[in-house]
Amino acid sequence: MRNLIINLAFIEILSFAGIWIFLRSLIKERRSEFGNILYIISLSVAAFSFLSPNLIFLNIFYIILIPLIARNFSQVAPIYIFCIIISPLLSYNVSAGGIFLLDYSVAHSLGIGAIIAFAIKGKGRSYAKFATDLPFIGIMLVLFFITVRDTSVTNILREFLGQALLYGPPYWIVSRGIRNLTDVRLTLLILAAAAVLLSIICAFEALKGWPLYRAIWSYHGIDLGSGASVKLRGGLLRSPGPYAEPLSLSFSLTMCILALVASRRSFRSRLWFLGLCAITAIGIAAPQSRGAWIGLIVGLLACDAYRGRWQVLATRTGILVMAGVLAVAGSTVNSHLANLTGTSAEGHGTIDYREDLLTRGIEEVRAYPLIGRPFEQVTEAMKDMTQGEGIVDFVNSYLVVALVSGLIGLAIFSTGLISQCTIIWQARVATKNTSTHREYLAFAFSTMIANCIMLANISMGGRITMTLGMTMAMAGILINLAYKHRRSGTFVE
Description:
single chain; mainly alpha; two-stranded antiparallel ribbon; 4 strands; 71% helix
């Protein structure tokens, strides 16, 4: 218990510092929109996660949190997103009559709380449309097929229940809870706050080699499995923060950092903004995910392209190329740079494994091209790719989709992602080049592009799918609002 209290104390101090720095950086008008909400949420979430006597008590807290904290309808979705991103999503099995039903987690309780808050705070007019929901629905149908093919009817129902309750609420709450550009601005600022908070915690974890949140899972008797074991790279901890493993953390952090960039007008000065960028750059380096770095860089360049800043794009591309060359050159004398660039022995091993996995995967896809075959059969056929942890590490979402649902499933999955990016790009014509709305659309476009890049280096599921769903929900709302303003002739500055 003593170690639990010590870990909690450090998390509370670091969380307070992160929120304080973030709020101090905002202009007065934006700071007043938050009050003490971010302090209350971040500090109470950590305290209840560490000190709750059991998971039932903890989930009751999460159910009532949003209805109690949200002051109006507009705050429900942003607060929900903030809680999802910064909370350890502890879970336990729910059974009835000895039959397993679903893995119930904190995310379910937050969803219930958000829906209750919607009912309490009053209905708001949503501009969500079924047409903009279709890309996400297509992706979810493919993922559902992957998990249920060649199984019993009861398992199909169980998986449908589990996936609908886990991945449905994040998309629905965000797409129906964000109604206008003011709501979008608040959501992006809350994502930026999460970026600063998590970055400070992750930097501390990496430098001290101390995974602060790991004690929570042990305290509640939850086995994370070998796939979520604490990992080191180049002598530094790959910080997982409140997540089960570092890759999911880096995926969420990328979205949050791009939201920070899109919110630049809300900060007191360019110096404050650059300071926050520096903090979050250190934060996303802490999980040591090269895929996240690549995704973030490509996302930032995509943001410039969307805003039509072609000269800035060319300049930044040149600077990044030079920085990459210098980093590779410096990796010969610095082990940390070697691990970051993948030029170390460990890095070469990781890259070689991914290349071999892709080669073997393509062989399997060629053998079963149309609808693939069940995941268990794929794993058995590719057991020659078993790595050090005793598993076949399918670190490529596109490859998994192709292996288990074939080229048909891959086409549907990819179409969902590409169509969303294409529709966002086309929405540029509905906004002024210098408008705030264009910047928000640029966030959606850059985040979707970054997600598409990172999915080639990570497996779908859990927080990854939830984050993707929330991104697509925000993109859909921004698209609908853009065309609404265009039809009415009321371009928003």
